[in-house]
Structures are given as structure tokens and as C-alpha cells.
């Protein structure tokens, strides 16, 4: 029919037709379909600061090592409560302008962890800032590069009222006695990272996609533990260890140690429970602890605090779900007064 060896005109025309057909199927039709994408109900658009942080994220090429996509496979359970859908990117994937495409943030490598829900997994601004300044300060085995150009070293006398001081351990300071100040770009980048949270679907989560937290809750029945209690150690590892470390010793100069802590070992667990629910600002060289009351249930907080009060040499009474429930009610009453 066609002798492409001799009929070069038909060869070029056929190759061109195949190229155009594939372009329509692979690129043009999906692009038109994406125009019909709508945001998930209750999904919040990016604020000005968060969008500027997205631009910093792209400028620093963070997507070379991090993804923002949860696939519908078991190994991705830890990164989100459900698989990603196009609507998840409705606000972040808008075109910059007529001539510039939206920034690509999906990524294809997981040299570092997926960031789809990093705002839920790690809501602490101080942790993110310290991690950007020197990742080894919070994760000793990290291969992530440092971003010192997003920070400034200043003398105490040069501090301004609105400066955000980063709690950096002494061994990670280039010059002793200096204070590390976060730049506007660093704060914007952290605002963007904290905004990365999966919006709950109106119909609920995908039934065949088990959230990582549920897995943690239902695991831990080994070693003869058939009581059905939540595993406080695993919950602590997920929610608290990034700052306080698996050893409970924290990071000197950044995040306080729980080992031998008067608050943790207090016979009355009220202050410890309040800190977990409401967060804590020690107003010292330590970073601010964000509140976890909206992220953790009463049973989860009871399991975590009991683990803290019975580990690393600590020895204090168990915290029950009822204890946490009472304190949460007290807090709600105080806020309503």
C-alpha cells in the first residue's frame, strides 16, 4: 500500500498525522478536560503569602526531591488519607499568566518524603524553619541540602521587633553568639508547606485506601497485647518524634527534652494534656509547640501522653481517655467565657 522506503512524501505525511493524533489524545484533550475541574467543597484558596511561598518552592527546585501526589497503592498510605485527584491542585495549578504555565509541583522522585499532607504531619513553623536552615539539626541522617541563604545571622543588638528568630542549637551556628533570623522568603515557604493538607471529600475517604493513622491504631497487637489499646509509641513516633526525637531527648536549643521533665512526670497530668491540646510557647530559646487538639482524638492523646510518662526512665501514672475528655471540656468552657 505505502512504500515508505521510496515514497518519502507519504512517510512524512503519515509521521506528521500520527504525531498530531497523539498530541491531541495525550495533551490537548486532557487539557480541555482539566478546564472543567472544580475545587473540592471547603477547599481553601492559597493566601498571598502561601502563593509567594509556592514560588519560592519552585525557585528552590524542591520538586526535584519531593513529590506531592498520593497514588492508589498501599505503599502511599502514609502520605495521605486518600489518593490525589485533580481537584486537589485546583488553586496551586492555576496559570501564572497568559504566557506562563502553572508551576509543576507533582514531582517524580522521593529522595525526600512526599509533601501532600506535610502541613498536617508537621504543623510546627519552628520545626520547618530549623529544618530548612540545617536539616541535620532535626534529622541526623538527612541528605537534604541546607538553605542558609534564606536566613540571616545578626547580633542581638541588631534584632528588630518583628524578626522571627530561629531556635538553632549551638553546634549548628557558624558564629557563636549570633542569632538566626528567617527571611521573608523562608517564612513564605513555610506558610506554603503548612498549607499542604488534603481536603476531606464530601463523600468521605476512599474505602479501599486505609489512612496511615488507622493502620497505626490497629497495629501494635503483637507481643501478646490483645487489649485493643492504641499503640502510644507508634502514635508518638508519627506525631511527636520529629521534634522531640524517638529518644524523647528533643533537640538541645530547639525542642525540649521529655526525659525527666517535671511536666511529663507530674502526678497531675492536666498541664501535659493542655499542652498537647493547646500547644505551648515557652518564650525561651525553644521553638513554639503547635496545638494538636484538632488532629488527635482523646484516646490518641491519652495513649501518647501515657507513653511519654512511662518511657525513657519517666515514671508517672497512666492517662486515660476520660482524663483527656475532661480537660478538653474545661478548655472549651474557658474559651467560651
TrEMBL record:
It holds the Pfam family FixO. The chain crosses the membrane at residues 12-32. GO terms for molecular function: electron transfer activity; heme binding; metal ion binding. Keywords: Heme, Iron, Membrane, Metal-binding, Transmembrane, Transmembrane helix. InterPro entries: Cyt_c-like_dom (IPR009056), Cyt_c-like_dom_sf (IPR036909), Cyt_c_oxidase_monohaem-su/FixO (IPR003468), Cytochrome_c-type_DH (IPR051459). It comes from the Bacteria. Coiled coil: none annotated. Signal peptide: none annotated. PROSITE patterns: CYTC (PS51007). Residues 48-197, 227-312 form the Cytochrome c domain. PANTHER family: ALCOHOL DEHYDROGENASE CYTOCHROME C SUBUNIT, BLL4482 PROTEIN-RELATED. This is Cytochrome c. It comes from Gillisia hiemivivida.
